[in-house]
Amino acid sequence: MRERGEEQSMAVPEQTREVTMDKITSLAKRRGFVFQSSEIYGGQSGAWDYGPLGIELKNRIQRFWWKEMTQLHDNIVGLDAAILMHPRVWEASGHVENFTDPLVDCKKCKMRFRADQIPEENLVSKTCPECGGELTDTRKFNLMFKTNIGPVDDGSGLIYLRPETAQGIYVNYKNIVQSNRMKIPFGIAQVGKAFRNEIVTKNFIFRTCEFEQMEMQFFVKPGSDVEWFNYWREQRWNYYKKLGVNMNKLRWHQHGPGELAHYAKDAYDIEYEFPMGFKELEGVHNRSDYDLSRHQQYSGKDLQYIDQDNNNERFVPFIIETSAGLTRQLLMLLCDAYEEQKVADKGNDDDYRTVMHFHPIVAPVTVAVLPLMKKDGLAELAQEIRGELKEDYATDYDQAGAIGRRYRRQDEIGTPFCVTIDYQTKEDGTVTVRDRDSMEQVRVPRANLSDFIKTKIKAYKRQA
Ligand code: GAP
């Protein structure tokens, strides 16, 4: 049943204003998604803190990915490996030798640049793109953070903070085959922190020194790798569709011969059109048998798979990797969800609402419960109804200010459903449910509320 609503008459979505990284950064701070690390000390570059809404969003993205990988694929299991690993791991993986960026410094203004990110003519003429000063020769700079384990700091306890989660999976591959009786093809999924000493950290949380990855390594028989590679490319593309991302903003980028990582036979990035242009969101890589062959060589352990269904044939599996940045995906969703939408025509700033169109499955708050008035028992009734919803949904409660303003506050954090408790609720036990995207309101019996929201979430489709 459709119902009244004070903003319906002015809800005429027509035109939107541009999304910029400054707007995203400002909203993220203002509403408690992301804060600068150590801000009261002037900030720590390359590191960010996730506030109350940020951690909710991050956890939900992680859960969505985890379900997609493990629950919906019978042959993928999870792992949580340690961040600190034996230093030989990083020799075997090639990171000690190859995980470098080309670096140049300006002798005058002391700015530091990645040589592959400044114009060719500046490199050739050795002039700083910022101040025109003289640039140093290009040198290789390893991105791994080093630290020391144990009481003596003499280099004997050298240890790295992992720059990717993938290696934790490779070194556990045999354990998992044996303990969980996994048969090829199968995958291992992991979510966790990774650290890189990035030279350039700009664009908010896009490229940071501390970040989180969601990686899945899929072990296959050599020869079937191309087929599985194509399968995983399709799966990963469809994941973003399910997540309600604007698919017009996604594209594939295949790595050319000069771009391929030292381990890769073939690689594609899924790129998203961020406010600063198309940038990598996640990578799908055919890593061949590089990883397990190298770990076999460096550890001296036999990492061959024994195919008991095929005359005990032995081989080193090929690996198809899907490697997504969790924190980068969060930034993508902030950009993708953001809209300043025209809802009235009165010629002032109130004409626009800022609305985050998060998929309800990842929205930090799913339902906000709002009493129309604080008085006449409506606040108590609203708290009671919130209590009924808490078990199933992340809820919020707001009784401060005009109802229109409260809707706007919820729009700005992307709450898909606002439940309003009014005088009619006292009479007939119905509440209004306001849809964030259409701003339409319907009356729903209180007893059906939880199921109603569940059905709406299941049926959710992003509006163009
Ligand atoms: N195991 C393969 C691997 O780590 P990658 O392309 O270096 O591949 C995978 O990283 C993903 O991790 C990227 O697509 C990106 O989403 C995320 N990522 C990489 N470096 C990052 C950084 N410095 N800050 C935030 N996210 C990063």
Write the SSE topology.
Blueprint: E1 16-17, H1 21-30, E2 34-36, E3 48-50, H2 52-71, E4 76-78, H3 87-92, H4 95-98, E5 100-105, E6 112-114, H5 120-125, E7 139-142, E8 146-148, E9 158-160, H6 166-170, H7 173-180, E10 186-195, E11 210-220, H8 225-242, E12 250-254, E13 266-274, E14 277-286, H9 290-299, E15 305-307, E16 313-315, E17 318-325, H10 326-337, E18 338-342, E19 352-356, E20 367-371, H11 378-390, E21 395-397, H12 403-413, E22 417-421, H13 423-428, E23 430-435, E24 441-445, H14 449-459
Parallel strand pairs: 4-10, 20-21, 20-22
Antiparallel strand pairs: 1-18, 2-3, 5-6, 5-7, 8-9, 10-11, 11-17, 12-13, 13-14, 14-17, 15-16, 18-19, 22-23, 23-24
Helix pairs in contact: 2-10
The protein binds glycyl-adenosine-5'-phosphate.
What labels would you give this structure?
single chain; 464 residues; alpha+beta; 5-stranded mixed sheet; binds glycyl-adenosine-5'-phosphate
Describe it for me?
This protein is of the alpha+beta class and 464 residues long. The chain has helices at 21-30, 52-71, 87-92, 95-98, 120-125, 166-170, 173-180, 225-242, 290-299, 326-337, 378-390, 403-413, 423-428, 449-459, and strands at residues 16-17, 34-36, 48-50, 76-78, 100-105, 112-114, 139-142, 146-148, 158-160, 186-195, 210-220, 250-254, 266-274, 277-286, 305-307, 313-315, 318-325, 338-342, 352-356, 367-371, 395-397, 417-421, 430-435, 441-445. It has a seven-stranded mixed beta sheet, sandwiched between helices. Strands 21-20-22-23-24 form a five-stranded mixed beta sheet, with helices on both faces. Strands 1-18-19 form a three-stranded antiparallel beta sheet. The chain is globular. It starts with 15 loop residues before the first strand and ends in a 5-residue tail after the last helix. Residues 1-6 and 8-14 have low confidence and may be disordered. It binds glycyl-adenosine-5'-phosphate (GAP). Residues 164, 166, 196, 198, 207-208, 211, 213, 215, 280-283, 321, 323-325, 327-328 line the site of glycyl-adenosine-5'-phosphate.
